[in-house]
Design goal:
alpha+beta; Alpha-Beta Plaits; 2 domains; 10-stranded mixed β-sheet; binds 4-diphosphocytidyl-2-C-methyl-D-erythritol; binds adenosine-5'-triphosphate; Ribsml_uS5_D2-typ_fold_subgr; kinase; 4-diphosphocytidyl-2-C-methyl-D-erythritol kinase; ATP-binding; transferase
Length: about 280
């Protein structure tokens, strides 16, 4: 791999809570959630070309390139660039896939934001959020790049800077398809809409958690284990679970004792995505 590549962050998120407030006619669900961005994730590098090709130099095992959200994002943006605009893309995948921490969605958002700059498309953040929504409900929040309350299907934002807590994020290695959870007849769908001002961790919940725990005992076991140490909850539709700590050393101590059957990492919450900071820096260079 060429050593002069510039790497761009593609961070993870946690849903600190997730309320389902209704179901829309198109089958999608209206949500309320607090999206907490983390300081760690995957990395992407881009090399613009003039051959109109989108070439993923690091394919993901099990994901055909045409289904990869990175390639889809680049293709979606291509009509806004010069006719011959293409690029080579490298992905350094570090986040567990399908774990409710938004890896693929974040990759898509990083692609939209960085190529918007490299290809000089000059689309506004709002326009990129709208494009992102065509790729998935979790993409706009990563384009937005701030820790934020979200409603709608996850595209309406009220920014909500949070104390920079430390999170132990653990994954039981169970793959849960988001669509399966949202179509489940036993999913609660009528949580009353809450005023953002009333948010506390304790007076909120993840409406998918009980259902997922009922059908996936490994998720229930992991959550039960973490709750012995700190306030803990599932993120998104699972399968990852997080525990909240005031300091890093406590989180690392618990990570050290995590049973071998689970994978985990410790990350700090951030209020602004490091991707946005790096893009700002590029503008001033
Ligand atoms: C649950 C969250 O992870 C919270 O962050 C997201 O809302 C899910 O976002 P995502 O993974 O980007 O999901 P998408 O790829 O857009 O949707 C997958 C499937 O989940 C269902 N879905 C998703 C989001 C939503 N608000 N309502 C839904 O009913 C739809 O059946 C959709 O076909
Ligand atoms: N670049 C990508 N990185 C990861 N997964 C991808 C990517 N492109 C497509 N996918 C597909 O998307 C699926 C979900 O991956 P992802 O890591 O985004 O899940 P997630 O963390 O549950 O996301 P979310 O929290 O948005 O629901 C994967 O199993 C894979 O098939």
């Amino acid at each position: 791999m060429a050593s002069e590549l510039t790497w761009w962050p593609s961070v993870a998120k946690l849903n600190l809570f997730l309320h389902i407030t209704g179901r829309r006619e198109d089958g999608y669900h209206n949500l309320q959630s607090l999206f907490q961005l983390l300081d760690c994730g995957d990395r992407l590098a881009f090399e613009p070309t003039e051959d109109h090709q989108i070439a993923l130099m690091t394919p993901l095992v099990g994901v055909p390139d045409e289904d990869n959200l990175i390639v889809k994002a680049a293709r979606l943006l291509q009509p806004f660039a010069a006719d011959n605009a293409g690029c080579k893309i490298w992905l350094d995948k570090r986040l567990p896939m399908g774990g409710g921490i938004g890896g693929g969605s974040s990759n898509a958002a990083t692609t939209l934001l960085v190529l918007n700059s490299l290809w000089q498309c000059n689309l506004s953040l709002q326009k990129l959020e709208q494009l992102g929504l065509q790729l998935g409900a979790d993409v706009p929040v990563f384009v937005h790049g701030r820790t934020t309350f979200a409603s709608g299907v996850g595209e309406q934002f009220v920014d909500a800077p949070q104390p920079q807590h430390w999170f132990l994020v653990a994954t039981p290695g169970v793959h849960i398809a988001t669509a399966d959870i949202f179509r489940h007849p036993e999913l609660p769908r009528q949580t009353p809409v809450m005023n953002w001002q009333d948010y506390t961790f304790d007076n909120t919940t993840n409406d998918c958690q009980e259902l997922v725990c009922r059908y996936h005992p490994k998720v229930a076991k992991l959550l039960h284990w973490l709750l012995e140490y700190a306030p803990s909850r599932m993120t998104g539709t699972g399968s990852s679970v997080f525990a909240v700590f005031a300091d890093q050393s406590q989180a690392l101590k618990v990570l050290d004792t995590l049973p071998d059957e689970f994978m985990g990492f410790v990350a700090q919450g951030v209020n602004i995505s490091p991707l946005h900071s790096q893009l700002e820096q590029r503008k001033t260079d």
